[in-house]
Amino acid sequence: MTSDPTSPPRSASISKKYPYRRDADGNRICAVCGEPCSLKYCSEACRDKAYVRCWPDWARYMVAKRDHGICAKCKCDTEKIARILKAAHEMITGCSWGRCVELDTVRTKMGFTREHLWEVDHIQPVSEGGGLCGLENLQTLCTQCHDAETRALRGRLAADRRAAEPMPLFTEIAESTETRED
Protein backbone atom coordinates (compact mmCIF):
# COMPACT_ATOMS: atom_id res chain seq x y z
CA MET A 1 0.00 0.00 0.00
CA THR A 2 2.97 2.32 0.12
CA SER A 3 3.21 4.91 -2.62
CA ASP A 4 5.83 4.71 -5.33
CA PRO A 5 8.57 7.28 -4.55
CA THR A 6 9.22 7.73 -8.29
CA SER A 7 5.60 8.70 -9.03
CA PRO A 8 4.59 12.37 -9.34
CA PRO A 9 3.24 14.05 -6.17
CA ARG A 10 -0.50 14.14 -5.46
CA SER A 11 -0.57 17.78 -6.52
CA ALA A 12 0.56 16.84 -10.05
CA SER A 13 -2.13 16.77 -12.72
CA ILE A 14 -3.72 13.50 -13.75
CA SER A 15 -2.01 13.84 -17.14
CA LYS A 16 1.40 13.73 -15.45
CA LYS A 17 0.51 10.79 -13.23
CA TYR A 18 -1.29 8.82 -15.93
CA PRO A 19 -0.09 10.05 -19.35
CA TYR A 20 -1.29 8.51 -22.59
CA ARG A 21 0.82 5.43 -23.28
CA ARG A 22 1.75 3.45 -26.35
CA ASP A 23 3.30 0.02 -26.76
CA ALA A 24 6.47 -0.73 -28.76
CA ASP A 25 4.42 -0.85 -32.00
CA GLY A 26 2.85 2.56 -31.34
CA ASN A 27 -0.59 1.23 -30.37
CA ARG A 28 -2.44 2.91 -27.54
CA ILE A 29 -2.47 1.09 -24.20
CA CYS A 30 -4.30 1.82 -20.96
CA ALA A 31 -2.58 4.47 -18.83
CA VAL A 32 -3.18 2.37 -15.69
CA CYS A 33 -2.85 -1.34 -16.53
CA GLY A 34 -1.13 -1.33 -19.93
CA GLU A 35 -3.83 -3.36 -21.73
CA PRO A 36 -4.52 -2.44 -25.38
CA CYS A 37 -7.33 0.10 -25.76
CA SER A 38 -8.48 2.96 -27.98
CA LEU A 39 -8.95 5.50 -25.19
CA LYS A 40 -6.78 6.54 -22.25
CA TYR A 41 -8.28 3.87 -19.97
CA CYS A 42 -9.40 0.37 -20.98
CA SER A 43 -12.28 0.26 -18.46
CA GLU A 44 -14.23 2.21 -15.88
CA ALA A 45 -12.26 0.33 -13.21
CA CYS A 46 -8.94 1.68 -14.53
CA ARG A 47 -10.41 5.18 -14.90
CA ASP A 48 -11.73 5.08 -11.33
CA LYS A 49 -8.37 3.83 -10.05
CA ALA A 50 -6.59 6.81 -11.64
CA TYR A 51 -9.23 9.31 -10.50
CA VAL A 52 -9.25 8.06 -6.89
CA ARG A 53 -5.47 8.52 -6.69
CA CYS A 54 -5.59 12.01 -8.18
CA TRP A 55 -8.81 13.63 -7.00
CA PRO A 56 -9.91 13.53 -3.34
CA ASP A 57 -13.50 14.39 -4.30
CA TRP A 58 -13.64 11.36 -6.60
CA ALA A 59 -12.18 9.21 -3.81
CA ARG A 60 -14.94 10.43 -1.47
CA TYR A 61 -17.57 9.72 -4.11
CA MET A 62 -16.28 6.17 -4.69
CA VAL A 63 -15.99 5.44 -0.94
CA ALA A 64 -19.57 6.69 -0.44
CA LYS A 65 -20.75 4.49 -3.32
CA ARG A 66 -18.98 1.45 -1.83
CA ASP A 67 -19.66 1.93 1.92
CA HIS A 68 -23.01 3.81 1.88
CA GLY A 69 -21.94 5.92 4.88
CA ILE A 70 -21.47 2.97 7.26
CA CYS A 71 -18.62 3.61 9.71
CA ALA A 72 -15.97 0.87 9.50
CA LYS A 73 -15.30 1.07 13.29
CA CYS A 74 -18.63 1.51 15.08
CA LYS A 75 -20.96 0.50 12.19
CA CYS A 76 -22.94 3.74 12.61
CA ASP A 77 -25.15 4.43 9.53
CA THR A 78 -24.40 8.10 8.90
CA GLU A 79 -26.68 8.31 5.86
CA LYS A 80 -29.62 7.12 7.97
CA ILE A 81 -28.74 9.63 10.70
CA ALA A 82 -28.61 12.41 8.10
CA ARG A 83 -32.06 11.43 6.76
CA ILE A 84 -33.53 11.31 10.30
CA LEU A 85 -32.01 14.67 11.22
CA LYS A 86 -33.32 16.30 8.06
CA ALA A 87 -36.82 14.82 8.49
CA ALA A 88 -36.97 15.83 12.18
CA HIS A 89 -35.78 19.30 11.33
CA GLU A 90 -38.41 19.70 8.63
CA MET A 91 -41.16 18.47 10.98
CA ILE A 92 -40.14 20.80 13.81
CA THR A 93 -39.34 23.97 11.89
CA GLY A 94 -41.17 23.56 8.60
CA CYS A 95 -37.91 24.55 6.95
CA SER A 96 -37.10 22.18 4.08
CA TRP A 97 -34.07 23.91 2.60
CA GLY A 98 -30.68 22.33 3.18
CA ARG A 99 -28.45 24.41 5.47
CA CYS A 100 -30.09 25.89 8.52
CA VAL A 101 -28.73 27.18 11.84
CA GLU A 102 -31.10 25.03 13.91
CA LEU A 103 -30.09 21.86 12.06
CA ASP A 104 -26.41 22.68 12.60
CA THR A 105 -27.10 23.16 16.34
CA VAL A 106 -28.78 19.75 16.61
CA ARG A 107 -25.93 18.10 14.69
CA THR A 108 -23.36 19.74 16.99
CA LYS A 109 -25.23 18.61 20.13
CA MET A 110 -25.19 15.04 18.76
CA GLY A 111 -21.40 15.25 18.38
CA PHE A 112 -21.27 15.80 14.62
CA THR A 113 -19.18 18.95 14.35
CA ARG A 114 -18.56 19.10 10.60
CA GLU A 115 -20.77 19.53 7.57
CA HIS A 116 -20.49 15.82 6.77
CA LEU A 117 -21.34 13.06 9.23
CA TRP A 118 -18.50 10.87 7.93
CA GLU A 119 -14.93 11.20 6.69
CA VAL A 120 -12.77 9.25 4.30
CA ASP A 121 -9.92 7.76 6.33
CA HIS A 122 -6.65 6.20 5.19
CA ILE A 123 -6.35 2.74 6.74
CA GLN A 124 -2.58 3.10 6.51
CA PRO A 125 -2.04 6.81 7.30
CA VAL A 126 -0.38 9.03 4.69
CA SER A 127 2.34 9.86 7.25
CA GLU A 128 3.12 6.14 7.47
CA GLY A 129 3.29 5.50 3.71
CA GLY A 130 -0.38 5.34 2.74
CA GLY A 131 -0.42 8.25 0.30
CA LEU A 132 -1.40 8.01 -3.37
CA CYS A 133 -3.45 4.94 -2.53
CA GLY A 134 -6.45 3.34 -4.14
CA LEU A 135 -9.81 2.45 -2.64
CA GLU A 136 -8.26 -0.54 -0.84
CA ASN A 137 -6.61 1.85 1.65
CA LEU A 138 -9.66 4.09 2.20
CA GLN A 139 -12.52 3.55 4.64
CA THR A 140 -15.58 5.39 5.91
CA LEU A 141 -15.43 6.60 9.52
CA CYS A 142 -18.07 8.64 11.33
CA THR A 143 -16.66 11.95 12.52
CA GLN A 144 -16.32 10.73 16.12
CA CYS A 145 -14.34 7.62 15.12
CA HIS A 146 -12.26 9.68 12.68
CA ASP A 147 -11.40 12.15 15.43
CA ALA A 148 -10.38 9.28 17.73
CA GLU A 149 -8.20 7.74 14.99
CA THR A 150 -6.59 11.12 14.32
CA ARG A 151 -5.84 11.64 18.03
CA ALA A 152 -4.29 8.17 18.23
CA LEU A 153 -2.16 8.83 15.13
CA ARG A 154 -0.99 12.18 16.51
CA GLY A 155 -0.05 10.45 19.77
CA ARG A 156 1.96 7.79 17.89
CA LEU A 157 3.74 10.42 15.78
CA ALA A 158 4.57 12.52 18.86
CA ALA A 159 5.92 9.43 20.67
CA ASP A 160 8.04 8.58 17.61
CA ARG A 161 9.44 12.14 17.55
CA ARG A 162 10.24 12.02 21.26
CA ALA A 163 11.91 8.63 20.86
CA ALA A 164 14.02 9.96 17.99
CA GLU A 165 15.31 12.94 20.01
CA PRO A 166 18.60 12.16 21.70
CA MET A 167 18.36 12.07 25.48
CA PRO A 168 21.09 13.96 27.32
CA LEU A 169 23.49 11.72 29.17
CA PHE A 170 23.54 11.89 32.96
CA THR A 171 27.14 13.13 32.84
CA GLU A 172 26.12 16.02 30.56
CA ILE A 173 23.36 17.02 32.98
CA ALA A 174 25.74 16.80 35.94
CA GLU A 175 28.37 18.88 34.11
CA SER A 176 25.85 21.57 33.20
CA THR A 177 24.68 21.67 36.84
CA GLU A 178 28.28 22.00 38.10
CA THR A 179 29.07 24.89 35.74
CA ARG A 180 26.00 26.78 36.94
CA GLU A 181 27.03 26.34 40.57
CA ASP A 182 30.49 27.87 39.90
What is the overall pLDDT average?
83
Termini Cα gap: 57 Å
Number of helices: 7
- Roughly how many Å is the radius of gyration? 24 Å
- Counting DSSP E segments of at least 2 residues, the number of strands comes to 4
Helix content: 40-55%
* C-alpha geometry: flat
Report strand %.
5-15%
Q: Note poorly predicted spans.
A: none
Largest sheet at a glance?
Answer: 2 strands, antiparallel
Order of helices and strands: HEEHHHHEEHH
Helix/strand/pairing category: mainly alpha
Biggest sheet strand line-up: 1-2
Description:
This protein is mainly α and 182 residues long. It has a domain at 55-181. It is 47% helix and 8% strand. It has 7 helices and 4 strands, in the order H-E-E-H-H-H-H-E-E-H-H. It has a two-stranded antiparallel sheet. A hairpin with a 5-residue loop joins strand 1 and strand 2. Helix 2 (44-54) crosses helix 3. The longest helix has 22 residues, at 143-164. The mean pLDDT is 83.
Question: What are the SSEs and their pairings?
Answer:
Elements: H1 14-17, E1 21-22, E2 28-29, H2 44-54, H3 56-67, H4 78-93, H5 101-109, E3 118-122, E4 138-142, H6 143-164, H7 170-181
